[in-house]
Amino acid sequence: MSSSTKGYLDMDLLRFSTAGSVDDGKSTLIGRLLYDSKSIFEDQMEAIEKSSKRHGDGEVNLALLTDGLKAEREQGITIDVAYRYFATPKRKFIIADTPGHVQYTRNMVTGASTSNLAIVLVDARKGMTEQSRRHMFIASLLRIPHLVVCVNKMDLVDYAEERFEEIKEEMSDFSSKLNVVDVEFVPISALKGDNVVERTDKMTWYEGPTLMYILENVHIASDHNHIDCRFPVQYVIRPHSDEYHDYRGYAGRIAGGVYKTGDEVTALPSGFKSTISSIDTYDGPVDKAFAPMSVTIRLSDEIDISRGDMIVRTNNIPKVEQDIELMVCWLSKTNLVPRGKYALKHTSADARCIINEVKYKVNINTLHRMEGDQVIGMNDIARISIRTTKPLFHDTYRRNRITGSLILIDEATNETVGACMII
Amino acid sequence: MTSYNLTHLRELESEGIYIIREVAAQFENPVLMFSGGKDSICMLHLAIKAFYPAKVPFPLLHVDTGHNFPETIAFRDALMKKHDLNLIVGSVQDAINEGIATEETGVSASRIRLQIPALLKAIEDNKFDCALGGARRDEEKARAKERFFSHRDDFGQWDPKNQRPELWNLFNGRKKMGEHFRVFPLSNWTEMDVWQYILHENIDIPNLYFAHQREVVNRDGVLLYKSDVLPTIEGEESKVMSVRFRTIGDMTSTGATISDADTLEKIVEEVASTRMTERGGRADDKRSETSMEDRKKEGYF
After folding, report:
1. B8-193+290-298 CATH pick, 3.40.630.30, 3.40.50.2000, 3.40.50.620, 3.90.70.10
2. Closest Cα to residue A423, out of A364, A332, A331, A359?
3. In the prediction, which pLDDT does A389 show?
4. pTM for this one?
5. Which of B50, B55, B276 is opposite residue A43, by nearest beta carbon?
């Protein structure tokens, strides 16, 4: 078999987000990644060549590859997150591409919530801007494990090392105030293709990797929590057939830790203890399972477990509480109602809650806390506390992005209005 | 040290299974839209895995344009029997007979758009509150902005400006009476992923996907099967060639590609080296730059 029919068995998956406005070259960068990794098809290329000519562009405008919907072109706006895909022999990539207009924060948060890595684009001529600060803050708030700052348009500053170092220093200063774990800086020109996929000879002073090298090699296996065993029960499987008469399996996607047959476990909220008798999949039982695998767990005792319950290791129990402290990003045009009631979704559990207190709002440009500001509108980020109708089995967001996150839902409109991270 | 890392196919599979289980848990009366194409076959495969050893707990819906390849229908029926599945057929011909759809005329007449009233009628008649679809975001730019859980109003319409944000793995399927959801478990899959998965899992697919001899006409660069239902153009010549189909839709609008790929391995290699998008062969998408977006707003999947 050739590489295309065999090599894919070693590929893994990296999800990353990009954010920015039209003029910082984000679309050109994405176009460049797609183009240089040969993910552009002839008919797509023809379409953008035609379009470039019509617009009177000199060279083919790679930014047009990420051109959006008619509804967007008509109104000159971009509607939230677009997802794009490409692959190299090493990895498959999912880009959450978020636009930089007025709904930026909401969109960046959405795109960032599932990302392993964020690309922050900075225009080499302008250096760090309000927008790049905001983007870094959101990446740290959402705890994206890896951050890559691309200093773009190096061709327009004569590929000057001093300029790159200046921006790098300024941004490192800022990122040290945030909880950014892993940050890299790459000088690029998305337009010319320098250091995006191919190394350039225009910046011999730069000895670091290209952007593509980072994307292909950044270590992502440890981005999931493999320590604290958390299994939110999603669905109970009962075949009711002769062959599987007494079968009772708990289906779900592992949110943390490594489960093995024979493990002593506790079911929440009941507190009943049992052991794992089998971890089933369609392809047969497995002896261990870890995040983000979808499996079906069977226990050796018959205990009452349903959707919204959680199976955890007996010696490592999450917090089981009704009073919860959160950072919220508000997503709705209707402001948060202090003391208001909302529905919430947390892992596979549904509950209701009341907003107990708005503690402060964050100025996302200066990172200052605005105490006493109770008006939380769309794109605002605030610290709040809630009381839920039943205990949530949770961890801090810092410890586990799945058991540490929840969404608030307006019960009248059913809209998702708040994205919350548990402190 | 053991590495706790999944391959991209295993991660996509796990995500798809998670979404399908979420549908079974959140909705009262879901249905899986089955076209007989590779994407819906792949989705069905995930559904079977999701509930094993129990049966798939919801029915399948096939919107039959009446212009399907006979091979697709035969494949569909055999598959339903094999997995003991409950199939509901929504018929475009019935919709035309009942006057809720009007047949297009002319040489490029197609029944693609007519699937919309037939689909919406089947959803209404059966009171389905969620329809699972095999659409992928990489197929088309209107689909790149689609959600996993896509909310539809009581007319079945998609409003791209008013979609619910989707964060982490939390999916909000709450709705009012009369509204429903379209859910797409393969959102993050590419054409290549689907083929690699079919190869890896050794999933049965209709023979139309493999290279075979077929009589085709070349119409505006699209090779169409010269079937009984294809409107004819005078003086148009047909030719028997070795072709295969990259997508399976209507006989009158699905373009064939010249190919010798007669095994799954060869298809994967061909897809890897092909320089055209799969929808490039769909006459229905060539109508205008925004045909998919327009259809989706009306209630297409």
Report:
1. 3.40.50.620
2. A359
3. 97
4. 0.91
5. B276
